Amino acid sequence: MALRLGDEAPNFTAVTTEGEINFHQWLGNGWGILFSHPADFTPVCTTELGMVARMKGEFEKRNVKCIAVSVDPVASHHGWIKDINETQSCTVNYPIIADPDRKVASLYDMIHPNADATFTVRSVFIIGPDKKIKLTLTYPASTGRNFMELLRVIDSLQLTAVFKVATPANWESGQDCIITPAVKDAEISALFPKGARHVKPYLRYTPQPNR
Ligand code: BEZ
What we know:
The chain is of the alpha+beta class. The protein has two domains: about 15-145, 3-Layer(aba) Sandwich (Glutaredoxin); about 160-205, Antioxidant, Horf6, Chain A, domain 2, CATH 3.30.1020.10. The protein has seven helices and eleven strands. The protein has helices at about 25, 45-55, 55-60, 75-90, 105, 145-160, 190, and strands at about 15, 20, 30-35, 65-70, 95-100, 120-125, 135-140, 165, 175-180, 195-200, 205. The strands form two sheets. The protein has a seven-stranded mixed sheet with strand order 2-1-5-4-3-6-7. The protein has a four-stranded antiparallel sheet with strand order 8-9-11-10, covered by helices on one side. It is elongated. About 30% of the residues are buried. Benzoic acid binds next to helix 2.
């Protein structure tokens, strides 16, 4: 069955370009992003892996580790990394899992047979420090992902894990947040000292509490 939000991220051991890992141990106490690629030496994947390498500092600031997976063997990954570094002005600075037996792809349901019988789709799993799945995304092979959107989601996930807020459409860090419906009006001044704007009884905004 497909993994759903709130499920524990399945653990596994795997060979990666940075050595063998136990996934949960590798995650440690921080956040993680596991993302799959259809195959090595493919153009869209090359740009995606380069983008993540160039954005590593932004993920690190948020205590997020990134790890990619592709069904090709590790020797192929090492050859491909040379091309990624050469063409994408980067140094790949995070592990790529070698998954030739499709162990990880099966655990995370990354092969969608009606899309492609052999290769993984572009899956993303954001995993919290509790090892629970916080977000899943599935893109087709033909569409490269927007990794800025993943940073935006991480900002929302980390904020809403601590404060009783949700984030509205197209929210970016620094913008007003929505007070969650469970918060009573009488609680607002204590919980949100920066104030609140009441648009409807169920639609109440407050400045981002941790800014
Ligand atoms: C790519 O990464 O460019 C790609 C991979 C599989 C199918 C189509 C594109």
